[in-house]
Amino acid sequence: MTKNVLNRRNLLLAALAACAAGVVGWQLNARPGQTQISMQAFAEDAAPAADPAAPVPEVKEMFLGNPDAAVTVIEYGSFTCPHCAAFSNDVFPLLKAEYIDTGKIKFVYREVYFDRLGLWAGMLARCEGGLRYFGLADLLFANQADWASKESPKEIVDAMYALGRQTGLTDAQMESCIQDQPMAEALVAEFQKNFDADKVEGTPTFILNGTKFSNMPWDEFKGELDKLLAM
């Protein structure tokens, strides 16, 4: 990656964390079936930075399944990525039924932030300690074509809040989560750390016991899992 691209990425990450005004982007090449990394920060108004003296919030790892399983699957996905929505809607139910609910694997979901919408969605899903995380994530993906296509920030937030209410969250709870600046900065920092460590280039990307895979059909995914489980 060139120095200019790295500089643009650092500017973007800072803008996402601070919800700063303006548009900064960068791109990496994605493989077939993935969404190319092409991120923007497009908040209307700058928000004050978090107090540097304040304690840094803990970013909880969101996972399902057996924490002691011999096979760990990590998905890097974005709530605004159409390919991630397709995986969530079509493939994830099969993965959950056959491998997660049966305790064969540990499934970890790590958020990638293409834009402020994705960051908002992640913060919303993590409301109240993330107790509703995967249920709300399912709703966000199933309804992605609706809420992510709204024209104004207010319309987007209203549509997201409507989904949050279906999980039992109140407007006050969601408002508190969305406006949690220290958590926004902590999430972006965690995203950057994991993103750099695993050299993610597109979404969805999967890490199966340390080996990276791009998006793949269910039969191939299942085959890779079965090989690992047979070791």
Written description of the protein model:
The termini are far apart. This protein has helices at residues 3-18, 82-100, 116-125, 133-142, 144-147, 153-166, 171-178, 181-198, 218-229; strands spanning 35-36, 62-65, 71-77, 105-111, 202-203, 205-208, 211-214. It is globular. Helix 1 (3-18) packs antiparallel against helix 8, helix 3 runs antiparallel to helix 4 (133-142) and helix 3 runs parallel beside helix 6. The chain has nine helices and seven strands. The chain is of the alpha+beta class and 231 residues long.
The portion of residues forming beta strands comes to 5-15%
Q: N- to C-terminal separation?
A: 36 Å
How is the biggest beta sheet arranged? 5 strands, mixed
For the biggest β-sheet, the strand order reads: 2-4-3-6-7
Strands, total number: 7
The rounded Rg comes to 17 Å
Q: Low-confidence parts lasting 5 or more residues at pLDDT below 50?
A: 1-30, 36-48
Coarse structural class: alpha+beta
Quaternary status: single chain
Query: H/E order of the elements?
Result: HEEEHEHHHHHHEEEH
Calculate the mean pLDDT score and round it.
Answer: 83
Number of helices: 9
